[in-house]
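Lab meeting notes turned into a lecture example. A postdoc, R.K., suggested we walk through two folding results consecutively so the class can see how the record format repeats. The first protein's sequence and structure tokens come next.
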Amino acid sequence: VTGFLIGLIFDPTSSWFALFIACLVASVGKHFVGTGRRKHIFNPAALGIVVASLMFGRPVAWWAGAWGNLPPLIVVTGMIPVLHRLRRLWMPATFLVFYFFTNLLFAPLADALRLTLDSTAIFFALIMVPEPLTSTSLGMWRYGWGLVVGVLVLGVSVLFFPVSDPLLVSLLAANAIGFFFVRNRPIKLLSDIV
């Protein structure tokens, strides 16, 4: 699945070596960066794509969504029932609502709606944001995870960080926050003390 996602997102004109490195980094991130089996910190596909993109100076293309309306339709009809059963539908929903209002700050209503319903945003929201092993779904985080990712996307975009892709970089930052402060909990939260 990770290799499939990398193939759908990474620049398809890249060399086979760049794609190999993206897959290798994703595999290393999945199996060796974490605290045990199935406890990896970062979304493996996002990690592999961002690292390979920076190493080889290749853009993140999200090329699978360039085929028109068919890919988002397939993703929406396929993922909504799955996310509903997993009780993770709130994650993409809160991300897309926040993403819409963020776009509305910088663009007219029609453009904000078009950007929010773009195949890249839909693909990212429905597949990358709620990834079961790296997203945080404990308690109220189930409802706020998409919002956290959205706030980080806004921060990266407004501050104009020179990153390969604000969506994926923000997701990796959210994965780190979720792992260290919620999933792994080395730090006592105020709610635990009170």
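The second example is placed directly after the first for contrast:
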Amino acid sequence: AAAPGYQETINFSFVEERTEYELAGNADPIRVLNPIAAPLAVMRSSLIGSLVGVLKLNLARRAARVRVFEVGSVFKRDASVVDSLSTVAGIAQPMRFAGLAYGTNAPLQWGEPERAVDFFNVEGDVEALLAPRQPTFVSDEHPALHPGRCARVDLGGRVLGYVGELHPKWRQAYELPHAPVLFELDLDG
């Protein structure tokens, strides 16, 4: 896991079109010809929407503290990809590692005041995950994340991913009492 307390989740590669537009900034998602369910009509290009869905399910079951991660493929249009035994022409399938933290920073314990998880806690989880390599965090923007609380994760001269607090408009749109902090990292390359 990214840090102690995170639980692995496995989600469908099919998502609601809404999450692709809103949380991935993907205006042209890859459509599924025969979806397994009407709402799950497109292929995900980010793991963030799936993790927000898992958070909503946990909150419906009255969970006060949620730490989840997922390792999985995402799907993006890429004309350079050709048909093979493991690929489909025109579709790249990079592997990603993403996590979500919500609620208190630590489980309730005597002698320790409750404190909500924040950007810096999850930034530390990403640093621990990548150790001994040392990433650089650079202020940046991502469609799903709060513009003032988002950083690009650079490692070895390339963009590895993003970490940040969910954007306030998506926190409200997905009816979340508090904003989760998320990260998504590219595992390919």
